[in-house]
Amino acid sequence: MAESAVDFLLQTLGSLVRQETSLLQGLRGNINEIQHELQSMRSFLKDADRRKRSDDGVRTWVDQVREATYKVEDIIDTYVYQIVKQHTREGIIRRALYSPLLLPKRYYYKHRIASKLQAIKSEIHEISERRQRYDFHEEGQTSKMKDDVENWQRSGEYLHLISDEEIVGIDKKKDFLIGKLTDERPKLAVVAVVGMGGLGKTTLVIKVYDSPQVKNHFECHAWITVSQSYKLDELMRNMIKELYESNKEEVPDDINKMKDSDLVQTVINYLQNKRYVIVLDDVWETIEWNHIRVAFPNNRCGSRIMLTTRMRDVALSFEAENTLYLEPLGKDDAWLLFCNRAFSNKSCPSELQPYAKSLVQKCDGLPLAIVTMGALMLTKEKSSLEWRKVENSLNWQLSNNKKMGGMKNILLLSFDDLPCNLKYCFLYFGLFPEDYQIRERRLIRLWVAEGFIEEREGHTLEEVAADYIKELTCRSMLQIVEQDFSPYRGIRMHDVLRELAISIGREQNFCSTRDRKEEIWTNKARYLSMQNSIVNIQSSSTCHHRSLMLFQIKIPSLSLCSSISSRYKLLRVLDLRASSIESVPYELVELFNLRYLDLSYTNVEALPKSIGRLQNLQSLDIDETKIKILPKGVEMLKKLRHLFIPSSTEAPDGIFNLNCLQTLSSIGINDDTVRKVGNLTQLRSLRIEDVKRNNGKELSASLQKMKALLYLTVVSEEEILDLDAVSFPPAHLNSLSLEGRLERLPPWIGSLQNLARLDLRRSNLKEDSLSSLEALPNLKILRLITAYVGEELCFRHGCFLKLKILQILEIPKLNMIKIENGSMTCIEKLYLKECPELKRIPEGMQYLTSLQALGLSDMSEELIQRIKAGDERKYKHQLETEIHRHRKRKIKRRWRKRRKMNWKKLYQWEKKRKGKRRCSSTFEHKSWTSSINFTCFI
After folding, report:
1. Distance of alpha carbon 880 from its chain centroid, rounded?
2. Which of 50, 160, 502, 733 is most buried, by CB atoms within 10 Å?
3. Residues 601-618: what's their mean pLDDT?
4. Domain end among 416, 431, 462
């Protein structure tokens, strides 16, 4: 980790020297000497970082190097902050008149900083000399590992996470649990699954819980993730909501006002005469079974409680009658799992088998460790010498840390093998709450703002960050969560890996996560997050924080106002997303280092007029706020890369001169601005609204200039959307959404060779437009929402060969869908909604051999009766898969109507309501009504 700190500082200093030459005049000599000294030490730090866990002397030396680098960073940032603050405090005229008076103070700052740099330079020199006492030597493998990783990044060949089909060794355990849940015992019984983190307890129980045998056996069900920081009232509220939603019943309106006793009584009343199954996932020793057992009536209906826990004592305290103690995988299953992950062809070469089997043996059958080790070895050269080195380096690690059973050390090996920048990116996830799912693009913006991303010729920082995510995913250190109809992918981290990140982060003073009600924060961490509490944001005057992130925080505005400039003056990231603040303090503009500001989903009504002083700001997100007008100061944010503003917000014309802008969402277009938007030639993502028909030609001309555009959304509320004049569309366009009436489909869409997602909303096309889309070679998601007024759609042979998800919604006259043999050969999910004239399942469904899910909603009564009568029995599997998954949609639609939320707000509310992983994996941006009720007979 010290190596990462040194690399990060050298990268920062190099950038600073290039960009802020005038500010550093007279200091360059000291800075250059510090750079050279740190560069000479860097080559020894990788070996030292590995050795420090077994050598106290090395650990002390590494800690000294890390703290010295932190000091240098603080000194430089503080100096730049003071100079810029002095430079911008006065107005232009006053600064011109009194500039001679400011020179003494500037010389004072420079003299003071020079003294500090001289002192730290001497300290670093002494630390460097101290290295000789430990006889550090450079490992030849280090540079080779780095080259291998960099070559792998550039190759673009990344593997996906292990799929369900590759999970091994759970069939017998699954059958055992299903049997215990569905046996004939009438009394309430508790079934427990116990095992250490990473053994797959939750994965196993999810498969049991979702199985048809279990779902058809019980009248109602609920899945509750408990975790360590559970609250009894929230646990009961979540349980009530899950139970009501499982039967498509409306949740009581006053649930949020109920006290603990009322919540418990509501659960008792609901379960009194029902056969139910309740899953309590991730139970820790902190939960008091006696406090909640009274909520589960023993009604002798054969009800069951199933829990997962890492603690055997917890299962005993629950008086579990049947306990499954998960054991590590057997040799054969462990070997199969390792080969699936470590070799692209899933077969181990004979010359590597001795080393591979030794590695598998040392993983001790732990699935998470095996997957992680397999991902690590996938990046290694397939040579006996390279594999022997890895095998030898594992020997001392696997014998340590008995509490983690060797797994932590295996994960530490994967962490140690990460390139320096990726270590920071990995540890950064320790700031997010447990089971938190963050959008990929937001994570990328955060990493870029923090300075974690290394510049690479020919690539933007965001593109390099996307490669970092791919690499961490390939190493099984991050997980990607795909959502059917969202253009945004989610990123999450396994709980055990998150614990590892938090542990290392605290040890290295990298990050700190606070989730208790404390008034004062005093620590040396560089990155801080606060979660689930009411706090007064304060810190000591020696605060080192570069980031402050809030999650479900109630924060007094006065606290933010008094602390922001005095105690958090060196912040790069300020994330107040969904917090309770109502105004932005003026002192915010003093944060010269600020690169990322997120005020979305707050009640903020205005930005400071002088926001233009944030000259380093890269990302500004004020989406879903009450801001109606952007101040003209936004025009001065020359480094701004990403801008998110609410719909119908007035923006100054000067934002179209921000040449670094890559994201602009959402911006209203008028006759004056439609041409100016073409100046933003670096845009990757654009959402424009209020487009009129007479804007078509000029907007088309502007779009042609955006050669780098990847994501485009164009919205017209009432008038016809005319984009036919686009002659040369952005060649790399990946996602296109057109919302508004079309006389015909723009002819240029068929030329988009890289288009993977297409949404047509309210198009009301009179002709079948599929023929214009058939040739799109990479189209994977197609959504037709009120897009067609005709009666028939035909998917012809040899077309849509890569399409995986098709959604056809609200086409009232559609009475026939034809699917020819050889069409949509990769289709996995098909959704039909509000097509009342469609009387039968699409003709040719038998050709869709890859179909996994068929969802129906608001369809004709004739179609429903045919399904009930069994006429469509051959599609039973697809129907029961998807219809069951969407049983909660009616409740979501009612809540949306009641709370008058847009989808973005509903998504945030849903995450708060559920809180845990099952929320994020099941919620989708659409609603399904109760007109189809298949659960009772399928």
Report:
1. 29
2. 733
3. 91
4. 416
Q: Is 510 in a helix, a strand, or coil?
A: coil
> What sign has the CA pseudo-torsion 733, 737, 740, 746?
positive
User: Strand 438-439 vs strand 735-739: parallel, antiparallel, or unpaired?
Assistant: unpaired
- pLDDT, tens only, 900-933: 444 445 445 454 544 433 332 222 223 222 222 2
Nearest to 816 by CA among 799, 792, 789, 833: 792
State the Cα–Cα distance between residues 149 and 912, nearest whole angstrom: 38
Query: Would you say residue 208 lies in a domain?
Result: yes
CB atoms within 10 A of CB 472: 23
- Alpha carbons 394 and 410: distance in angstroms, whole number: 8
Beta bridge partners of 193: 308, 324
Structure tokens at 593: 């280092």
3-state secondary structure 181-196: HHCCCCCCEEEEEECC
- Put residue 169 in one of left, alpha, beta given phi > 0 → left and psi -120 to 50 → alpha: left
Closest Cα partner for 451 from 644, 595, 658, 619? Answer: 595
Average pLDDT, the chain: 76
pTM of the prediction? Answer: 0.68
User: Is 489 a residue whose pLDDT tops 90?
Assistant: no
Q: How far is CA 282 from CA 411, 515, 917, in A?
A: 21, 19, 11
Cα-based distances in Å from 615 to 195, 612, 657: 52, 7, 15
The encoded tokens of residue 324 equal 């499954």
Q: What is the pLDDT of residues 849-907, one digit of tens each?
A: 888 888 888 888 887 777 666 555 455 444 443 443 334 444 444 444 444 444 445 44
Distance, CA of 653 to CA of 676 (rounded, Å): 8
Based on the fold, state whether residues 174 and 318 are members of the same structural domain: yes
Which is more confidently placed, 157 or 762?
Answer: 762
CA 554 to chain centre: 23
Strands 735-739 and 511-514: unpaired
Prior bond to 557 cis, omega within 30? Answer: no
Residues 6+ apart with CB under 8 A from 182: 213, 214, 217
Is the Cβ–Cβ distance between 530 and 537 less than 8 Å?
yes
Q: Which amino acid is at 497?
A: L
Alpha helices per DSSP H over 417-531: 420-428, 440-450, 461-474, 495-507
Query: Mean pLDDT, to the nearest integer, of 709-720?
Result: 91
Domains held by the chain: number: 4
Residue 632 is predicted with a pLDDT of 92
pLDDT at position 774, please? 85
Whether residue 335 lies inside any domain: the answer is: yes
Secondary structure of residue 218 in the 3-state scheme: coil
d(CA 509, CA 529): 13
Question: d(Cα 340, Cα 162) in Å, to the nearest integer?
Answer: 8
3-class SS of residue 665: strand
Does the pLDDT at position 277 exceed 70? yes
Q: Which domain holds residue 51?
A: 2-138
Which DSSP string corresponds to 85-129? HHHHHS-HHHHHHHHHHHHHHHHHHHHHHHHHHHHHHHHHHHHHH
Residue 625's pLDDT is what?
92
Cβ atoms of 903 and 880 closer than 8 Å: no
Q: How far apart are the first and last CA of the chain?
A: 55
Asked if the model's pLDDT at residue 165 lies above 60, the reply is: no
Same domain, 258 and 291: yes
**Does 110 share its domain with 212?**
no
Same structural domain for residues 39 and 127? yes
355 and 398 fall within a common domain: yes
Chain-centre distance of CA 549, in angstroms?
A: 15
Rounded to an integer, what distance in angstroms lies between the CA atom of residue 642 and that of residue 664? 6
Taking only the tens place, the pLDDT of each residue in 72-92 is 777 777 777 666 666 555 444
**What is the DSSP secondary structure assignment for residue 842, as one 8-state letter?**
P
Q: Which residues neighbour 865 within 8 Å (Cβ) at sequence distance 6 or greater?
A: none
Residue 48 pLDDT more than 50?
yes
Check which CATH number belongs to the domain holding 441 and give it: 1.10.10.10
